Amino acid sequence: MTDSIQVQLRKGALDLCVLAVLSRGESYGYEIASTLVAAVGMGEGTIYPLMRRMQNDGLVATRIVESSNGPPRKYYGLTPQGRAVFDAHRRDWRAFATAVDKLLEDIP
Protein backbone atom coordinates (compact mmCIF):
# COMPACT_ATOMS: atom_id res chain seq x y z
CA MET A 1 0.00 0.00 0.00
CA THR A 2 2.85 2.42 0.76
CA ASP A 3 4.18 2.16 -2.81
CA SER A 4 0.83 3.15 -4.30
CA ILE A 5 0.57 6.13 -1.95
CA GLN A 6 4.06 7.26 -2.98
CA VAL A 7 3.14 6.96 -6.67
CA GLN A 8 -0.08 8.92 -6.20
CA LEU A 9 1.67 11.64 -4.21
CA ARG A 10 4.32 11.99 -6.91
CA LYS A 11 1.75 12.14 -9.70
CA GLY A 12 -0.28 14.71 -7.81
CA ALA A 13 2.72 16.94 -7.18
CA LEU A 14 4.48 16.55 -10.54
CA ASP A 15 3.01 19.67 -12.16
CA LEU A 16 4.00 21.73 -9.13
CA CYS A 17 7.51 20.24 -9.13
CA VAL A 18 8.05 21.05 -12.82
CA LEU A 19 6.77 24.59 -12.32
CA ALA A 20 9.09 24.95 -9.31
CA VAL A 21 12.11 23.85 -11.36
CA LEU A 22 11.21 26.32 -14.12
CA SER A 23 10.56 29.12 -11.61
CA ARG A 24 14.34 29.15 -11.07
CA GLY A 25 14.99 29.70 -14.78
CA GLU A 26 14.85 28.09 -18.20
CA SER A 27 15.74 24.44 -18.51
CA TYR A 28 15.71 21.73 -21.16
CA GLY A 29 13.80 18.46 -20.91
CA TYR A 30 16.58 16.14 -19.84
CA GLU A 31 17.75 18.62 -17.20
CA ILE A 32 14.20 18.93 -15.82
CA ALA A 33 13.84 15.14 -15.77
CA SER A 34 17.21 14.64 -14.04
CA THR A 35 16.31 17.20 -11.38
CA LEU A 36 12.99 15.48 -10.70
CA VAL A 37 14.51 12.00 -10.63
CA ALA A 38 17.01 13.15 -8.03
CA ALA A 39 14.48 15.11 -5.97
CA VAL A 40 11.31 13.00 -6.04
CA GLY A 41 12.06 9.86 -8.05
CA MET A 42 9.94 10.69 -11.10
CA GLY A 43 10.98 9.01 -14.33
CA GLU A 44 12.03 10.77 -17.51
CA GLY A 45 9.20 9.24 -19.53
CA THR A 46 6.56 11.22 -17.66
CA ILE A 47 8.18 14.61 -18.30
CA TYR A 48 7.79 15.07 -22.05
CA PRO A 49 4.01 14.51 -22.27
CA LEU A 50 3.63 16.84 -19.27
CA MET A 51 5.79 19.51 -20.93
CA ARG A 52 3.68 19.27 -24.11
CA ARG A 53 0.50 19.69 -22.08
CA MET A 54 1.94 22.65 -20.17
CA GLN A 55 2.96 24.26 -23.45
CA ASN A 56 -0.52 23.70 -24.91
CA ASP A 57 -2.03 25.19 -21.75
CA GLY A 58 0.13 28.31 -22.09
CA LEU A 59 2.11 27.68 -18.90
CA VAL A 60 5.49 27.29 -20.58
CA ALA A 61 7.09 28.68 -23.71
CA THR A 62 9.88 26.98 -25.63
CA ARG A 63 12.87 28.00 -27.64
CA ILE A 64 15.38 25.94 -29.56
CA VAL A 65 19.08 26.47 -28.82
CA GLU A 66 21.76 25.10 -31.11
CA SER A 67 24.39 22.99 -29.38
CA SER A 68 28.03 22.73 -30.41
CA ASN A 69 28.27 19.16 -29.10
CA GLY A 70 25.00 17.54 -30.13
CA PRO A 71 21.50 18.15 -31.40
CA PRO A 72 19.66 21.40 -30.65
CA ARG A 73 17.96 21.56 -27.27
CA LYS A 74 14.44 22.70 -26.55
CA TYR A 75 14.46 25.00 -23.54
CA TYR A 76 11.32 25.55 -21.48
CA GLY A 77 10.53 28.68 -19.50
CA LEU A 78 7.54 29.87 -17.52
CA THR A 79 5.13 32.25 -19.18
CA PRO A 80 3.45 34.96 -17.06
CA GLN A 81 0.42 32.63 -16.85
CA GLY A 82 2.72 29.77 -15.78
CA ARG A 83 4.22 31.96 -13.05
CA ALA A 84 0.74 32.85 -11.78
CA VAL A 85 -0.33 29.19 -11.77
CA PHE A 86 2.90 28.21 -9.97
CA ASP A 87 2.36 30.87 -7.30
CA ALA A 88 -1.26 29.70 -6.76
CA HIS A 89 -0.29 26.00 -6.67
CA ARG A 90 2.56 26.72 -4.26
CA ARG A 91 0.19 28.53 -1.86
CA ASP A 92 -2.33 25.68 -2.12
CA TRP A 93 0.37 23.06 -1.55
CA ARG A 94 1.73 24.83 1.53
CA ALA A 95 -1.74 25.19 3.04
CA PHE A 96 -2.51 21.51 2.33
CA ALA A 97 0.86 20.28 3.67
CA THR A 98 0.44 22.38 6.81
CA ALA A 99 -3.01 20.90 7.40
CA VAL A 100 -1.77 17.33 6.90
CA ASP A 101 1.24 17.95 9.15
CA LYS A 102 -1.11 19.27 11.84
CA LEU A 103 -3.22 16.12 11.61
CA LEU A 104 -0.14 13.91 11.82
CA GLU A 105 1.24 15.79 14.84
CA ASP A 106 -1.96 15.18 16.80
CA ILE A 107 -1.62 11.40 16.65
CA PRO A 108 -0.54 9.92 20.01
Description:
- The protein is an alpha+beta fold and 108 residues long.
- The chain has helices at 2-23, 29-40, 47-56, 80-105, and strands at 27-28, 60-65, 73-78.
- Strands 1-3-2 form a three-stranded antiparallel sheet.
- A hairpin with a 7-residue loop joins strand 2 (60-65) and strand 3 (73-78).
- Helix 1 packs across helix 2 (29-40) and helix 1 runs antiparallel to helix 4 (80-105).
- The longest helix is centred in the C-terminal third of the chain and has 26 residues, at 80-105.
- It is elongated, with a radius of gyration of 16 Å.
- The mean pLDDT is 89.
The mean pLDDT is 89
- Cα(first) to Cα(last) distance is 22 Å
Assign the structural class, choosing from mainly alpha, mainly beta, alpha/beta, alpha+beta, or little secondary structure: alpha+beta
Give, in spatial order, the strands making up the sheet with the most strands: 1-3-2
Number of strands: 3
Q: Which runs of at least 5 residues are low in confidence (pLDDT < 50)?
A: none
How do the helices and strands line up, and which of them pair or pack?
Blueprint: H1 2-23, E1 27-28, H2 29-40, H3 47-56, E2 60-65, E3 73-78, H4 80-105
Antiparallel strand pairs: 1-3, 2-3
